[in-house]
């Protein structure tokens, strides 16, 4: 399914992503016109990006003087394995590698792509090592033979002159927010797609107010693949046809046809017969600290009650950091980091030792990745 050229795109995007993380530059990324110079990439970034390529395609990279040689190694691995490992964002814990076979991806591409089969062009803004980046840059175009363009998600591009009638522009909530703030509008006949993160309330309406003919939201997770689609933010998602649903079980279970085993939804959902769902909230924000289950939501709720805290996020430390919780805090106006001793005292009175964060980081806003999902710090 992946051609050598498509593998080269994915490798490029993996390297670009790691460079963006190092630069902490949210939108200056995934520019396919930029040729990556290995000599100018910091060694730690080069090492990590190479490791990520190996993880994605399931092989151990050999030394390479040119990026094209690494891409060919990845292509050979894919031709042999016929699968890739997609990495979860780590927004609720340690990132995981999820196996997606070629057969699974082809079934998903056919099912989800049918909503866009009449498109004249697909324009994707999602990096191509991401689930939806693969869907739009590889799957849909391969199955439905639709021309595809990958562009950097820069809201200030001349979108009105780039876009044409019949285009599908596939973005994500953070991009759309900046797109609207920049005052962009659409020419007639453009479909917009949002995925990768929950769609903010009112985004459908605002996109249509500036000319979008259709707004389509995709729901799913790296762990599962695409689950559902909707074209009205007030309507339930309709579950994709390659899933079977067990509505008699609580929590609701789904089963991908052709694969053994039933799994729960990644969120708590409200079921709307026969195949509709409304996601309510994430289910997977419980972690183990020294063998004890700890609810991150509970710790955040208690931390949020302190008068100095405007926003906060709590997560498990990475293995190299330790085995306890850490917190990121945005302070209310009038407070400084000098409030930390008082905050620790307050938390000690409210939390068990397992729930108590051992590390505190302060910032002006909660950390997010380039697509607006909560990220590590």
For the secondary structure, the number of strands is 19
User: How many helices does DSSP assign?
Assistant: 10
Strand/helix succession: HHHEEHEHEHEHEHEEEEEEEEEEHEEHE
Strand order of the largest sheet: 4-3-5-6-7-8-9-14-13
- Tell me, rounded to a whole number, the average pLDDT: 88
Structural class: alpha/beta
Rg from Cα? 22 Å
Instruction: Tell me the helix content.
Output: 25-40%
CATH fold title of the largest domain: Rossmann fold
* CATH structural architecture of the largest domain: 3-Layer(aba) Sandwich
Basic shape:
globular
The tally of structural domains comes to 3
By CATH, the superfamily of the largest domain comes out as ANL, N-terminal domain
Description:
This protein has three domains: 4-81, no CATH class; 102-282, 3-Layer(aba) Sandwich (Rossmann fold), CATH 3.40.50.12780; 286-362, ANL, C-terminal domain (GMP Synthetase, Chain A, domain 3). It has ten helices and 19 strands. Helices cover 31% and strands 25% of the residues. Strand 10 (243-246) and strand 11 form a beta hairpin. It has a nine-stranded mixed sheet with strand order 4-3-5-6-7-8-9-14-13. The chain has a three-stranded antiparallel sheet with strand order 10-11-12, with no helix packed on it. Strands 17-18-19 form a three-stranded mixed sheet. The model is unreliable at 24-32 (pLDDT under 50). It starts with a helix and ends in a 15-residue tail after the last strand. With 377 residues, it is of the alpha/beta class.
